[in-house]
From TrEMBL:
It comes from Phytohabitans kaempferiae. This is Helix-turn-helix domain-containing protein. Residues 15-69 form the HTH cro/C1-type domain. Signal peptide: none annotated. InterPro entries: Cro/C1-type_HTH (IPR001387), DUF5753 (IPR043917), Lambda_DNA-bd_dom_sf (IPR010982). SMART domains: HTH_XRE. PROSITE patterns: HTH_CROC1.
Length: 277
């Protein structure tokens, strides 16, 4: 279970306790608040995240101590930090997301990433990155700030030349073939990967189509200093900090590491992909 879901369920338990202590049924509470009864059930079971307004209304309706609003809001803050909904995250445009990554990458010394679909942002050319970033404004109905976001993403790549940091990326071979940009842009991107594979503090592995996969790669993920794992969905970014779960992702990454090709073998896979464009 992710930190997000654990915190959401904990908040639900606290809300249920308040309702029961007030000897109010879920149906009666919903009627009092002007909600459908299913909302009360979803909040208490951790199936829906309460808003601050929900918490304030719940505390007032159950006649609980007003100080509980602050306690429960603190839980809500943890939830929101672990499950950053992209519409909220991107409210002011795409650049903000890139700056958040910039700050995170500046704090850590070891970054590992498994990518199943796209070239990692830290290894993207400006042209490839522009096509990736340009998807976001229309998809999420947010301000168009592609140029500013692109500048921030390129700024992030300066970390690759900081020898106090170490990077380890594993890409599935389909990343080299996915048509997310025009062929000429992809050629430049593959050249960039070849050059990056020679950086002294960067280990680049490729999982060829012929590799026997140790586990099903359900999604890509990033590990920061054995303390945080992040992965993205279309709608959100998930943060996992539970030590046992971080260790699980690290174990999975290590298994893919054993199956990946490196050095000249990895560059041969990249070269073969180049010839298909």
């Amino acid at each position: 279970m992710s930190d997000f879901q654990r915190n959401r369920e904990l908040l639900g338990v606290r809300l249920r306790e308040l309702r029961r202590n007030a000897r109010i049924t879920g149906v009666a509470l919903a009627r009092q608040l002007g909600w459908v009864q299913s909302k009360v059930s979803r909040l208490e079971c951790g199936k829906q995240t309460a808003t601050r307004e929900d918490i304030e209304a719940w505390v007032e309706a159950t006649e609980a101590h007003p100080d509980l609003v602050q306690d429960l809001t603190s839980l809500l803050t943890n939830i929101e930090s672990d499950y950053a909904v992209w519409r909220r995250e991107f409210r002011s445009g795409v650049r903000r997301k890139q700056l958040n990554f910039l700050r995170l990458e500046a704090r850590v010394t070891m970054i590992r990433g498994l990518e199943t679909t796209v070239v990692p942002g830290l290894l993207q050319t400006a042209d490839y990155a522009r096509h990736r970033i340009a998807e976001q404004p229309d998809l999420h109905n947010i301000p168009e700030d592609v140029s500013a976001a692109l500048t921030a993403r390129m700024q992030r790549q300066q970390a690759l030349y900081d020898t106090s940091k170490a990077f380890h990326f594993i890409l599935m071979e389909n990343v080299l073939h996915n048509r997310l940009c025009p062929p000429d842009v992809m050629r430049g991107q593959l050249d960039r990967l070849t050059m990056a594979s020679g950086l002294p503090n960067l280990k680049l592995g490729i999982l060829p189509f012929t590799a026997r996969l140790p586990v099903a790669p359900l999604n890509g993920f990033w590990i920061f200093d054995d303390a945080l794992v992040t992965f993205e969905t279309i709608a959100a970014e998930i943060h996992v900090r539970d030590p046992d779960e971080v260790a699980l992702y690290t174990s999975v990454f290590d298994r893919f590491d054993q199956a990946a090709h490196y050095g000249d073998n990895a560059r041969a896979v990249i070269a073969a992909a180049f010839k298909t464009l």
